[in-house]
Amino acid sequence: MSRKRAVKSKTSTAAPTAALHSKENGNAGKGTAGSDAPLNGVVYPSRPSLSNSSEFYDIAFKVMLVGDSGVGKTCLLVRFKDGAFLAGSFISTVGIDFRNKVLNIDGVKVKLQIWDTAGQERFRSVTHAYYRDAHALLLLYDVTNKTSFDNIQAWLTEIHEYAQQDVVLMLLGNKADATHERVVKREEGEKLAKEFGVPFMETSAKTGLNVDLAFLAVAKELKHRSMRNPNEPTFKLHDYVNKEMKSSGCCKS
Ligand SMILES: Nc1nc2c(ncn2[C@@H]2O[C@H](COP(=O)(O)OP(=O)(O)OP(=O)(O)O)[C@@H](O)[C@H]2O)c(=O)[nH]1
Ligand SMILES: [Mg+2]
Question: Which cofactor does it need (predicted)?
C-alpha cells in the first residue's frame, strides 16, 4: 500500500465546499463536498496533497461532528487535535470547518478528516450537503443542557435522511466534568443509545475524558471495515467501547 501525504490541520470557515477540495485534492469547484469518495466509503487520495506537510497516511476517512449549538463540538475537536481546551467566551462555528489527524491503528496510518459543523439552525442546509460523504458521525449532546439531549431524536432523524446507511455513528454526552450543572444522567444517555442501537460514552473536552477513545474507536471501526483481513477477528465497535470503558474504570455503557 502506498503512503500518501496528509494536509496538516487546515482550517477554513463558512462552508468551504470548493475550498475543501482545493486544499485536500487540488481539485476546486467540484460541486458537492467530498464527491471523490468511492462507494465503499474509503478515500484513497489519487495524488499527493498540495500541502508541504510531511504527514503520511495509508487510508483516510471523513468524520463529522454534529449536535446542537454549544454542546462542545469545536472544543472536542480542539482537545483531540491539539490537546487543549478552549475556555472563555463561546465562539459559535460559522458554516463548517475541518481539521486532520493521522492515527496509527495496528500499524496502518489512518487519516481522519474531521468536519466540525455549526449547530445553529441557520446553517443546517450547509451541513446537510456534507452528510452524504461522511464515513462516521459523532453526535453530541451536552449533559448540562436538557434541550440538547431532547433534540437527539431529531438529529437521528436528520442523520437517517441525509447520511449513508452504513455510516458509523456514536452518541457522546459531553461536558461530563460539569458535575454541578449536570441535568442529564449518564443512565439516560445509555438508555437512549441502547434504544437506537448506537455506542455511547460521556466525554469532556475540558478534562479530555474519553475524547481520544471516541475518535480512536471510530477510526478502528472504519479501518477494520475497509481492510477486512480474514485472519483477524471481526472488530465490534460496541464491544470495544464497552471494554475500554470498563478497563478505564469509568463510565460503563
Ligand atoms: N465544562 C465544559 N465546558 C465545555 C466543554 N466543551 C465545551 N464547553 C464549553 O461550551 C461552550 C460551547 O463550546 P463549543 O465547542 O464552541 O460548542 P459547539 O458545539 O462547537 O457550538 P456551535 O459551533 O455553535 O455549534 C464553550 O463555552 C466551551 O468552553 C466541556 O467538556 N466541559
Ligand atoms: Mg463550534
Answer: Mg(2+)
- Domain span holding position 99: 59-249
Supply the DSSP string of 209-230, one letter for each residue.
Answer: TTHHHHHHHHHHHHHHHHT--T
Pairing of strands 200-202, 168-174: parallel
Global confidence as pTM:
0.82
Q: Is the CB of 66 under 6 A from ligand 1?
A: no
What separation in Å is there between the alpha carbon of 235 and the centre of ligand 2? 31
217 Cβ below 6 A of ligand 1 = no
* Span from the CA of 63 to the centroid of ligand 2 (angstroms): 15
pLDDT digits (tens, 9 = 90+) for 181-222: 999 999 999 999 999 999 999 999 999 999 999 999 999 999
Q: What is the CATH number of the domain that holds 224?
A: 3.40.50.300
Residue 234 CB burial class (10 angstroms; 0-12, 13-18, ≥19): exposed
